[in-house]
Amino acid sequence: MEAPTINRFPNQHLAMIFPVLLIFLRASAAAVASDTLNTGGNITDGETLVSAAGSFTLGFFSPTGVPAKRYLGIWFTASPDAVCWVANRDTPLSNTTSGVLEIAAMGILRLLDGGSGQTTWSSNTTRSAPAVAQLLDTGNLVVREQSGGGDVLWQSFDHPSNTLLAGMRLGMDPQTGAEWSLTSWRAPNDPAPGDCRRALDTRGLPDCVSWQGGVKKYRTGPWNGLWFSGVPEMASYSELFSNEVVVRADEVAYIFNATAGAPFSRLVLSEVGVLQRLAWDPASRVWNIFAQAPRDVCDDYAMCGAFGLCNVNTASTLFCSCIAGFGPVNPSQWSMRESGGGCRRNVPLECGNGTTTDGFMVVRGVKLPDTDNTTVDRSATLDQCRARCFANCSCVAYAAADIRGGGAGSGCVMWMNYLVDVRYVDKGQDLYVRLAKSEFAKEKRMDVARIVLPILASVLALTAACLYLVWICRLRGKATSLFRMIRNNNTNRRY
Ligand SMILES: *[C@@H]1O[C@H](CO)[C@@H](O)[C@H](O)[C@H]1NC(C)=O
Ligand SMILES: *[C@@H]1O[C@H](CO)[C@@H](O)[C@H](O)[C@H]1NC(C)=O
Ligand SMILES: *[C@@H]1O[C@H](CO)[C@@H](O)[C@H](O)[C@H]1NC(C)=O
Ligand SMILES: *[C@@H]1O[C@H](CO)[C@@H](O)[C@H](O)[C@H]1NC(C)=O
Ligand SMILES: *[C@@H]1O[C@H](CO)[C@@H](O)[C@H](O)[C@H]1NC(C)=O
Ligand SMILES: *[C@@H]1O[C@H](CO)[C@@H](O)[C@H](O)[C@H]1NC(C)=O
Ligand SMILES: *[C@@H]1O[C@H](CO)[C@@H](O)[C@H](O)[C@H]1NC(C)=O
Asked: Which of 203, 209, 211, 373 best tests ligand 6's pocket when mutated (most atoms within 8 Å of CB)?
């Protein structure tokens, strides 16, 4: 009798709570859980837009420890600390939770201080039309024309903060000069643009470069069709994140894409200029570091100076040596661990008046030098490349621009004047360096020594072994005759 009574109470509670819950959910769905802001609509501090599948949230936040500053941002819903984009980086709302994001009549997003009515941030479109803003499941906030083809008027992916998400571009539009690059936060709790920048360098062959102020700190090496020359490990996770460099008239850009089933991942440029690829582990709810750059001393830009060659496995020589045919500009400086002065040619080139006696020495397995001042021809063959470099006395080196076809590669990149930022890497490329004829004679002498010395050594070893054998045989012979003598003696004694 007791039991059913007891059971009835929770049911009654549920019956009472359920409609309340439903009403609450419906209300919050209308005010909060939408992914779209229609023309004239707004969200205030405390309200959010949530993308259709819930991956991303747009709303107001304060960085840890700075409650007085309010920013409008987009974050990864499962990990609100993972802020992927910030609108008003330079202009936080101070001491107020009266911020309002509205989409004005002509498709402009505007962030207002609801108290003073002042605009602290707005989107900038070249064309205006009545529009709707929608937060997509990629993390992109897109403003689309309401009528017609629904053209994109503005999107947050075109204005990256410090984070690159799948589908975002790092690069530029050569026609408009518009650039997509990452800018670090000033501090972990200050989204204001910091000192460090990561951009695609489109001069020569495209490569990704990290800058600190005006100083180049790290480069990935040129795109070789499959990966950035200095980051061969990109190939090892290409089943999860495909990498692509697009070269078109209106776009030169690096894009990564996540394949189905890949963990959610983001590339973040830290305040000190370190770029990390982080991947979300939903089970343990942590971000794992998937890859990081720079990785080691040899990644420091121009670590060994002009014509220097960095090798992480040679700590004993302070990682730096000179490319074959070159020696330290200032040996005393070099021994004082200042290798940045670089290397210079041991023997001047012999080139001019349309003739040359120079040749090319191959340096194998390297991240190709900075291609900023290079001449690139993607359609040339490597043989044509060699001929062109040979014919131009300013050309100090050449290499294949693209390794997709296998073999020695195709396409042509030619360096003028000097080479900088070369290091050994796994699966590195071949670099052909111009040297004076006499350097090859030296190399040949070295080669001769390399071949002849081991032969001499083996001959000597063989001779020694034979002599030893002969000696042993002789000894054995003597021992045998001695034994026979003793036996004979014994026999003699017995009889
Ligand atoms: C935001 O929208 C509400 C109606 O949804 C309106 O009452 C309010 O005035 C709007 N605020 C601003 C600042 O536009
Ligand atoms: C915000 O409030 C704090 C404490 O009330 C005050 O010290 C600070 O000056 C205020 N900042 C602004 C920008 O009003
Ligand atoms: C909007 O863009 C134009 C040209 O692209 C630029 O001249 C102008 O300063 C920008 N305005 C704002 C508020 O960013
Ligand atoms: C990224 O992958 C999705 C499917 O996984 C595809 O629809 C989309 O076109 C790809 N984007 C790029 C830029 O490759
Ligand atoms: C080029 O030719 C001129 C005249 O024929 C000669 O004086 C000069 O030394 C030559 N230069 C080289 C680098 O061979
Ligand atoms: C490219 O040329 C510019 C101008 O001559 C020079 O300042 C820069 O150091 C060169 N860069 C490289 C990598 O050779
Ligand atoms: C050598 O190459 C440089 C750079 O591309 C070019 O300016 C120069 O005219 C070339 N010289 C010759 C003789 O082709």
From this structure: 373
